Amino acid sequence: MTQRGVRRAILVGGGIAGPVLGMFLRRLGVEVTIFEAREAPLEREGAFLGIAPNGMNVLADLGMAAAVQARGAPCAGIRFENARGRRIGVIDQREAARRFGAGLVMIRRGALRAELAEEAVRRGVEIRYGMRLTDIDRSDPREVVARFGEGGEAGEARGDVLIGCDGFRSRTRASALPEAPAPDYTGLLDFGGFARCPGAPLSPGWNVMVFGRRAFFGAFAAPGGEIWWFHNSGEPDPGSAASPGPLRERILALHQGDPGWISDVVRATPEVLGPWPLHDILTMPRWHAGRVCLIGDAAHAATPHAGQGASLAMEDGMLLAMCLRDEAEPEQAFATFERLRRPRVEAIVRQARRHGSRKAVAGPVAEWFRDRALPLFLRIGAAAQARVHAYRIDWEARAEVRGGGEGTRG
Predict the structure, then answer these.
(1) Which fold would CATH assign to domain 184-280?
(2) 8-72+109-183+281-363+392-409 is classed in which CATH architecture?
(3) Strands (DSSP E) along 114-245, which ranges?
(4) What is the pTM of this model?
(5) What is the pLDDT of residues 226-251, one digit of tens each?
């Protein structure tokens, strides 16, 4: 059970971090309510993502790994190609389960959110939709009050703690930590879609990443013949967008001269999704104030380039629950959580930004050097990735720094 004073938890945001944290808190006997701004669950919302082995191990601790994998697909690895379609590198993930206890799983974002929310409700977490946070009152040192409104359902909630799980645009952060820096726009826009294109030369279960002449393209051959894809292109204005027709043509124009199957996949896509401007948060002075704490992208947003956003959010949920279990007071728990998490997550955010910068093309000379240097970068990157994937939180351990580091094993 948690220590004194933590009986009711308010969680703002019902994406990934919120339900995971909610389930771990329910394990401790805490009453949990998640307040989600969306009006209803949207299983077909967004594109797709990868859950790395470290994230799958958190789900395994919750007894959810098999259910999540059933909604997604195992990924055998990543193949990198240049604009001429020549393979310039491979990251093989087929031994991940043996090495790290779990493999890499690709899944639609909406399917993951739905599975987490449904299971959280089964375990006693209340989820209230249409609840948009407007204000946090921390004037009483014994509790925190959240107020909701602005077009959604109005109301007020009182809890012993409030956890902001509401993403990089976090309203929790804006209210409780107004001095926090705004997320940084990285200069890249993200688009995606789902298509059926039988002629595309893609092997089932493999990600193919193409460094095009003017843009970057990634595709995953999912079971059943569907292709899940994304496109990254540089854009100085994060508000840049277009209507669906011109948007498709714009993507096609950016991939002229790249392997022809990319254009075939984009043309075969019923609906092009996006744009999503890619932001990150390299660092913040603090993640908590009084009885309020931030986790996931609200505290340390990472771009998709490291493939760790969802997995870090899951780790956050598990470790924060342990800190609330093991520390005497919420503020002490939040300080311990931040101390344990900050080195790991900020290193991964920096790594993701470096990976994203390599997607930008500076001309044929830079392309020539990149193609020849990439195998070396991949070998170095694979070793760093293995260390990230091997991280594993031990629920039975105390949430404190030990000789092995960060209250983990492995």
Answers:
(1) D-Amino Acid Oxidase; Chain A, domain 2 (3.30.9)
(2) 3-Layer(bba) Sandwich (3.50)
(3) 126-129, 133-137, 144-148, 155-159, 161-164, 184-196, 206-211, 216-221, 226-234
(4) 0.92
(5) 999 999 998 887 766 555 568 899 99
